[in-house]
């Protein structure tokens, strides 16, 4: 897998770590329901041209590391995936709707997101190197002006 993705006029690496939970953090993402969720996440991510790097469906929450195009916002992606997976799970497992506490909501409203970027040491080295290159260029310009 290449480090960067490309579109017509852009090279990008937009990668995010996203975590969300079922309503009331019920421990029900196990067995066939967990497998169906896993399958659904891959299907709906590919529909939005996103690539799942890591996926871990825990019993009461979902961890997802995903690469997405810069034209797609994180909130749009999360809303799409949570909505579609909820519809899919309610259709396949109708007993979920019958609990009084569920209503028509499967997931909690919020989620956690963090960008997965380059290593901080690499960035520091890059910045230091750019400073060095700039100083060398200034010295070269000064020597040309003196001649």
Write the layout of secondary structure elements.
Elements: E1 5-7, E2 10-12, E3 15-20, H1 31-47, E4 51-57, E5 62-67, H2 74-92, H3 95-98, E6 112-115, H4 120-146
Antiparallel strand pairs: 1-2, 3-5, 3-6, 4-5
Helix pairs in contact: 1-2
Question: Can you walk me through this structure?
Answer:
- The protein is built from four helices and six strands.
- With 147 residues, the protein is of the alpha+beta class.
- The protein has two domains: 5-116, 2-Layer Sandwich (Alpha-Beta Plaits), CATH 3.30.70.1290; 118-147.
- Strands 4-5-3-6 form a four-stranded antiparallel β-sheet, covered by helices on one side. Strands 1-2 form a two-stranded antiparallel ribbon.
- A hairpin with a 2-residue loop joins strand 1 and strand 2.
- Helix 1 (31-47) crosses helix 2.
- The longest helix is centred in the C-terminal third of the chain and has 27 residues, at 120-146.
- The chain starts with a strand and ends with a helix.
- The mean pLDDT is 84.
């Amino acid at each position: 897998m290449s480090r960067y993705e490309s579109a017509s006029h852009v090279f990008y690496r937009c990668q995010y770590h996203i975590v969300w939970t079922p309503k009331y953090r019920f421990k029900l993402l196990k067995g066939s329901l967990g497998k169906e969720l896993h399958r659904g996440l891959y299907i709906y991510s590919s529909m939005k041209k996103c690539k799942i790097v890591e996926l871990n469906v825990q019993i009461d929450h979902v961890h997802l590391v995903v690469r997405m195009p810069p034209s797609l916002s994180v909130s749009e992606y999360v809303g799409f995936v949570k909505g579609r997976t909820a519809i899919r799970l309610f259709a396949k497992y109708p007993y979920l709707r019958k609990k009084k506490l569920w209503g028509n909501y499967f997931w909690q409203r919020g989620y956690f997101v963090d960008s997965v970027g380059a290593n901080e040491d690499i960035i520091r080295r890059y910045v230091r190197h750019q400073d060095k290159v700039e100083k060398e260029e200034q010295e070269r310009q000064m020597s040309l002006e003196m001649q």
